[in-house]
Amino acid sequence: MLERTICKTLVLLFLSVPALGAAGFLGGYSGNIVTPDAVITPAGTWELSFHEFFDVQDNDITSIGLQYGLMPNLEVGVSLLDNDDSETVFNAKLRLLPETPGRPSIAVGAFDVGGSANFINDDPSFYVLISKNIARTATEIAGKPSKPLGLTVGFGSGLFDGVFAALDWTLQERLSIMAEFVDEGFRGDSLFNLGARFAITDIIRVDAAAIDFEDFAAGASFRTAF
């Protein structure tokens, strides 16, 4: 029953209007589903997000995140996580090098700097990653051009203990699908997640994902600058 719900939701997302990069599902940082990427929230821009993980580690996890583009290559954020206990975690990500045609972007960051999230054993999650478009030319999906396929590979500690990798494929102007592997996930073992994201408007994005093809997560983000 859960598998059918996941499949139906993802199909509806694929048929909806497109999406761009946004907050990760744990909130407070730009990313794919759980993994971070090299995207930085634009300077002077706020992003508020809400996500719900259903029946992960036999509990629901609610995430409310807020992130801010402090500088062109630096974002900071905070997440309120609730899985029986409520915890506030602080995050930051710095892009060391932007992507060029011949070079990947490089970023370093941290999720839960203070190590307060009990569902990852109170371990801070530091990471370093590289990200690159791996398809030089656009292809066509249903007669419409798609953008290059982005690959992110990184390693770290805590939630990202070991290695992680993600693919982000923008199928149309606003629609993207995401696939990621996390060596050390919520359950203390590897996870493979699949999701989709689309923009309802230029400032509102919604997304949903199958977590290790067993659990389901969904949410939305709102971006504004002032």
Q: What's this, in brief?
A:
The chain has one helix at 2-14, and strands at 22-23, 30-31, 45-56, 59-71, 74-83, 85-97, 105-111, 125-133, 140-141, 144-145, 149-156, 162-170, 176-182, 191-199, 204-211, 215-225.
Describe, in plain words, how this protein is organized in 3D.
The chain is mostly beta strands. The protein has one domain (2-211). Helix content is 6%, strand content 55%. It is built from one helix and 16 strands. The protein has one helix spanning 2-14, and strands at residues 22-23, 30-31, 45-56, 59-71, 74-83, 85-97, 105-111, 125-133, 140-141, 144-145, 149-156, 162-170, 176-182, 191-199, 204-211, 215-225. The strands form three sheets. A twelve-stranded antiparallel beta barrel has the order 3-4-5-6-7-8-11-12-13-14-15-16. Strands 1-2 form a two-stranded antiparallel sheet. A hairpin with a 6-residue loop joins strand 1 and strand 2. The longest helix is centred in the first third of the chain and has 13 residues, at 2-14. The chain is globular and about 45 Å long.
